[in-house]
Structures are given as C-alpha cells and as structure tokens.
Amino acid sequence: MKPRLALLPLAALALGAGAPLPSAKDGASISVTVTDLRNAKGLLRACMTAAEDDFPECKRTASVHTASVDAAKGSVIFTFDDVAPGRYAIALLHDENANGKADRALGMIPKEGFGFSRDAKVRMGPPKFDDAAFDLKGDDKAMSIKMRYLI
Fold first, then answer.
1. How many CB atoms within 10 Å of residue 55?
2. Are 43 and 95 a contacting pair, CB within 8 Å?
3. Cα dist. 40→43, 70, 128 in Å?
4. Structure pTM?
5. What is the CA radius of gyration of the chain?
6. % pLDDT > 70, the chain
7. Nearest one of 89, 135, 140, 96 to 115, comparing CA atoms
8. CA distance 60 to 49
9. What domains does the chain contain, in order, with CATH numbers?
10. Phi and psi at residue 23, in whole multiples of 5°?
11. Contact yes or no for 61/27 (Cβ under 8 A)
12. For 81-116, how does the pLDDT look when each residue is reduced to its tens digit (9 = 90+)?
C-alpha cells in the first residue's frame, strides 16, 4: 500500500506536466464605465489613441484601440485589453441609430451623445488631446466617463 501512495503524487504530476502554463498578458486592461446614457438605442462606440493628431477621430493610426457595445439606459462597461504603457485619450459616441457616424444638426451640433476621457470639456468643438489624455504606466486602470447630449 505504501508504494501506491508514493506513486499517486508522481502520477498527478505526470498528468499535469503537459498542460500549458497560463500565458502572460501583453499589456494592461483599461475598464471604462460610461454613465448617463439616455436610452438603450443603438451602440456605444469607443476609440482610444496615443496619437495626438488623430484625436478624437481615431482614423489615421494603426495603433488605435476600439470597442463597440450595445447601449443601455444608464451605464455600460467595456474594456480595452492588452494596452501598452503610454499616454492615451478616449472618445465615445452613443450611435443611437447604429449608422457608424456622429449625426449632426445644422451641420455641426451633435445629435447623439459623446464623451471623452477625463470628462474633458467641449468648447466650440471637441477637446484637445491633452485635455482628455491620461497616462497608463502598465497596471490595469479603471475610469468613468459621463455621456453628454446637446440635443
């Protein structure tokens, strides 16, 4: 009986020997809670960029992180994963009709909700990158952004 007990731990080790080790993350996660959504219509679209000249459009750089989740009245949470350390800014759009663009009234007034990291203020246009930018040092980060509506 004693030899069997001695073999049991060795057998258990042998069974687990071929199992892959958990992989390390390539970067940090940024969890974003978006508050004050006025309804559950459409999608919440988010983009995050480190390129100052590509904010808030997030169209010209390959290093853009994007997310899209179903809208929900009140708040939603989404996450950017595997984000390298750096300085970033986030732009949000509540795309209520899910047409993939920011609809405007009179050619310039946003008809749908928007928001920016650090709840950067909007004055005669979107905020500058530096007003919305935050530093990511490598640890996971959580933040909250308030959705705003002008119409």
1. 27
2. yes
3. 8, 8, 29
4. 0.81
5. 22
6. 83
7. 89
8. 10
9. 26-146 (2.60.40)
10. -80, 150
11. no
12. 999 999 999 999 999 999 999 899 887 889 999 999
Question: How many Cα atoms sit within 13 Å of 114 on the Cβ side?
Answer: 21
Give the sign of the dihedral formed by CA 32, CA 38, CA 43, CA 48: negative
Rounded CA-CA distance 109/114 in Å is 11
Question: At 137, is the secondary structure helix, strand, or coil?
Answer: coil
Residue 56 preceded by cis peptide, ω within 30? yes
E strands of the chain, at which residues? Answer: 28-37, 43-49, 65-70, 74-83, 86-95, 104-105, 109-110, 113-116, 134-136, 141-146
Owner of token pair 């994963």: 81
Q: How far apart are CA 61 and CA 58, in angstroms?
A: 7
